[in-house]
Structure formats: C-alpha cells, structure tokens
Design goal:
The two termini are 62 Å apart. It is built from eleven helices and twelve strands. The radius of gyration is 51 Å and the shape is rod-shaped. It is α+β, with helices and mostly antiparallel strands and 451 residues long. The relative contact order is 0.07. It has three domains: 5-147, PAS domain (Beta-Lactamase, 2-Layer Sandwich); 206-292, Signal transduction histidine kinase, dimerisation/phosphotransfer (DHp) domain (Helix Hairpins, Orthogonal Bundle), CATH 1.10.287.130; 301-447, Histidine kinase-like ATPase, C-terminal domain (Heat Shock Protein 90), CATH 3.30.565.
Length: 451
C-alpha cells in the first residue's frame, strides 16, 4: 500500500469531501422528509377544516364521504353527534382507531396526530362538524412528495458535482505540492552524492520554496567550505613538502658522502630543526582532530591567568631573543582568577605567542597583557604588519589568510588560531582578534569565565 505524500494528500482531501457530502446528503434527506410531512399535513388540515364546515342541509353525508374519498387517497369517516359512525371510506383497523379521535373532536378539540397501521405511518386530522358530529380524515404518509423529491434530487446532483470538483482540486493540489518536493528531494540527493551547483526548483508553494532556498544556501555553503578545505589541504601539502624536501636532500647528501666531516654538526642541526618543525605541524593536525571528537577531555577548575602569562613569558623568552624580538608582560602583578583548564589555557596562549613572534619583524616587540574586567583576559599584542578589518573577520578561518598573503609576507596555516578558538570555546571562553593599541600590529585576546 502506497504511503507517498501525493496519495496521503489525495486520500485526506477526498475523504473529507466524501464525509462532507454524506453529512450534507443525510441532512438533505431529513430536510426533504420533514418538508414532505409538513406539506401533507397542511393539505390534510385544509381538507378537514373545509369539510367540517359543510352541514347536512347542504350536502348529504354520503355525498360528502364520496367527494372527500377522491382527494389523493384520503380515507374519510363521518361521525354523528353521539359518536356513531355515519359513513366512511376507511377500512378495518383505521375505523377502530378513528372513533376515539372523533370523540375528542366532538368534544371541541381539533386533532392533528399520526397513527401506525400495518407498519405504515398514517396522518390523521379530525374536526367537529357543523351538525355536532365529527369529520376524521386519514392519509398514509408518503416518504416524499413531488416537490420534496424534486428538491432532494437537485441538492444531491449539486453535491455530486461538488464532489467531482473537489476530487479534481485535490488531485491538482497534491501534484502542485508533491512535484516540487520530489524535485527538491532529487536535488538534495545529488548534493549528497557530491554534486555542487545543483539546480533547485524555484516555482513552488511558499513552504516548499523556503526548503528549496535553504537547499540552495546549503549548496553554496558546501561549495565554499569545500573550496576552503581544498586550499587548506594545498597549504598543508606545502607545509609538509618543505621540511620533507630538506630532510630528503640532506639525507641523500649524507648517504652519498657529499657532506664533509666539518659540516656534519651543521647538517645534523638542520635535520633536527626540520624534524621538529614537521613534528609540531603534525601535532597541530592531531590536536585539531581531537578537538573535533566527542571524547576530548578537559579538567576545568580555577586558573590564575596572571601566572599563565608569567610562565609563558619565561618559556618563550629564548625564542624571542633569537628572533631579536622584545617580549614583555604587563598586568600580572595581581591574580587574574578564572575558570578553565590551566594546561589548555597555556596551550592557547602558546599558540597566540607563536603567531605573534612569526608576524613580528626583527627589532619589534610582543606584549603579553593581563586585563581585569567582568571576564579576565590575556591580550597578545605585536608590532607586525597587523590585520585589516577584512582580515579580522577571516582571521580564524583555516588557510584563508595564508592564501591571501602567501606572496607578500610569512603567514602560518591558521591551524594554531583554529585550535586556540576551539579550545577557548570548550572552556566556555573565546578568542577575539583586533588591532593593537599601539604600533599598528595585531591584538589577540583570550577571555575565560571569571572564577
């Protein structure tokens, strides 16, 4: 049994129409029957009132019965003043039922009632006659009169036409809704298969059009994301190729005996440096992968950001001196209590300091500043080339700044900043980028929740 949306919409619409038509039909039949009963009752009442005005002086009772009996199958019974049956066209059970009704009429009451004889409803009207007797008229109740039957037929025809039109409208509506949905689903499957720039239908009901617009936006976002991933992978391959080329070159030179003994220590130092560079890059990739995993663990607790700044300054001082960069600290005289993982907070700060040292030319300076506020912060400022307003928006997108400035200045792969932002977010904090307060460089801020 099909369970498509088209079949469900069609079944629901047709079902509602059929139920509505049945209810309307039942109401119409009942209305027609009520109308027929009222119509027949009115005719019989008029006949009884007319005949009751006749007296024996004008028409004999026998003639009265003969005339009344020819009126649409109406049975007539004439009773004298004492309740004696004088003349009748009725038979059997009707005569017996008519006598007590006649007595009520002789007593002065107009009687309008119905009795059931041999399984049929019979309308009965009784009136006191001019001579003190009673006239009793009885007519079997017809289910429908000609007028009521015509009314019922017309209404049922109208209901049938409305039913056909409703079914046609339901089919049209179901197709209008499901056709663009099917096309949108097909486009989604093509996106899932890896296609990009998929044509998504535009003409559709508003809700389906919203889904199509969202799908087009997803298509564009996926294309942009995959483009950045390709650029990132290209930059990674470049980063890996450079130390590997150096390692291979010096390794082949050593294997071929081309390195004189006096240069062995120098070549060994180059090999160690390139190996360290490759190891650090691989560690960054692994750290980033772990950050994306659900089982990445943190040990959240109290952390003094001022102490983190002092320890980092001591650890990076030798590197800064080797690069001819002045590394200073400020705002660390008082504690900066925060909540986080001390080891991860130091890892974030190390990444920011490494980026600052890479961007700062010889003779420049890098400042590590502890800042008090609603949320304690550590700011890392440098005197490098800095970042434009456009760069600030893209600073945490892996590989984007590297692609933008590859030919003009040294820029990292963006892995460090990506790791820093994710680590800060896991600790309930954030990393922001801005312009340095002095010197025209860049300023990166690690902010953690207050203790």
């Amino acid at each position: 049994m099909t369970r498509t949306l088209f079949a469900r919409i069609l079944a629901l619409a047709v079902g509602l129409v059929v139920v509505t038509a049945l209810i309307a039909g039942v109401v119409t039949v009942q209305l027609a029957r009520s109308t027929a009963r009222s119509e027949q009752r009115g005719e019989l009442t008029a006949q009884a009132s007319l005949l009751s005005l006749q007296t024996a002086d004008l028409v004999t009772r026998q003639a009265l019965v003969q005339v009344a009996g020819n009126l649409d199958g109406t049975a007539v019974a004439v009773f004298g003043p004492g309740g004696r049956l004088v003349a009748t066209t009725a038979r059997g059970g009707l005569i017996a039922r008519a006598r007590p009704i006649a007595l009520r009429a002789i007593a002065g009451a107009d009687v309008s009632t119905s009795v059931r004889i041999r399984g049929r409803d019979v309308l009965v009207e009784a009136r006191r006659s001019a001579d003190g007797g009673a006239i009793v008229l009885a007519r079997p109740l017809a289910a429908l009169t000609r007028n009521a039957a015509g009314l019922l037929g017309g209404i049922l025809i109208a209901i049938g036409i409305a039913l056909l039109l409703a079914v046609g409208a339901a089919v049209w509506l179901a197709r209008r809704i499901t056709k663009p949905l099917a096309a949108t689903a097909a486009a989604a499957r093509r996106l899932a298969d890896g296609q990009r720039g998929v044509d998504v239908p535009h003409a559709a009901p508003t809700e389906v059009a919203d889904v199509a617009d969202a799908l087009r936006a997803l298509d564009a976002a996926l294309a942009t994301s995959e483009g950045r991933q390709r650029e990132f992978l290209l930059s990674i391959s470049h980063e890996l190729r450079t130390p590997l080329t150096a390692l291979r070159g010096y390794g082949e030179a050593l294997a071929d005996g081309l390195v004189p003994p006096e240069r062995t220590a120098e070549v060994g130092g180059v090999l160690v440096a390139e190996t360290t560079r490759l190891e650090r890059f691989t560690a960054d990739l692994l750290e980033l992968a772990r950050l994306e995993a659900d089982d990445f663990s943190l040990e959240l607790g109290p952390v003094d950001l001022a102490e983190v700044v002092r320890d980092a300054a001591i650890a990076w001082q030798a590197r800064a001196t080797a690069l001819d960069v002045r590394l200073t600290t400020a705002g660390t005289d008082e504690a900066l209590p925060a909540t986080g993982d001390p080891r991860r907070a130091r890892q974030v700060l190390d990444g920011l300091v490494e980026n600052a040292l890479r961007a700062t030319p010889a003779g420049g300076a890098v400042r590590l500043v502890g800042e008090h506020g609603p949320a304690p912060r550590i700011a890392v400022e440098d005197t490098g080339p800095g970042l434009s307003d456009e760069d600030l928006a893209d600073a945490f997108t892996r590989g984007l700044l590297r692609e933008r400035y590859r030919e003009t200045r040294e820029v990292g792969t963006g892995l460090g900043l990506s790791i820093a932002t994710r680590l800060a977010a896991r600790m309930g904090g954030r990393v922001t980028a801005g312009h340095a307060s002095a010197g025209g460089g860049a300023r990166f801020v690690l902010e953690l929740p207050a203790a």
